User: Fold this.
Amino acid sequence: MKYLVDVNGERVVVEIDGAHAVVNGVRQDVSLTAIPGTPVRLVRIGEQVHRVVARRGAARGAWQLDVDGARVEAEALDERMRAIKDLTTATAKASGPAPLVAPMPGLVVRIAVAVGDTVGAGQGLAVIEAMKMENELRASSAGVVTAIRVVPGQAVEKGAVLIELTAPDSPE
Assistant:
């Protein structure tokens, strides 16, 4: 499995294959061992062993790590989720909520809002199915639904506008 991990502002590519990991192109022997009765895990990377306590963050893929006593914020997402997050971030506009666009080709499974609904940042707006997986698409910021451009059962291409939003207090 390939992950794109952001650690303290630096992106690291990690591919895990059993007892090996490739980190930014360098193959290492790795292992993870739990210490019974504690939240501590021993992580071996090559010849180095680290004591790690991991806590889930508020967002998907976000982690708060204590590595050998030092706090590290990290976000680890697989390639597909990283692409979705990067696309969502790239389409966000400072002037107001961005329209909800399909991050990949797929089939619209359901629409969770109606025209006129006020939505909050992170609220689920629609679900599309791609590669036999359902993906919930969320609002990047608060807004009001002004148009729904798709219906359940409709096939969509990557980048297709699904739902249009305006700022909560702006005219349509």
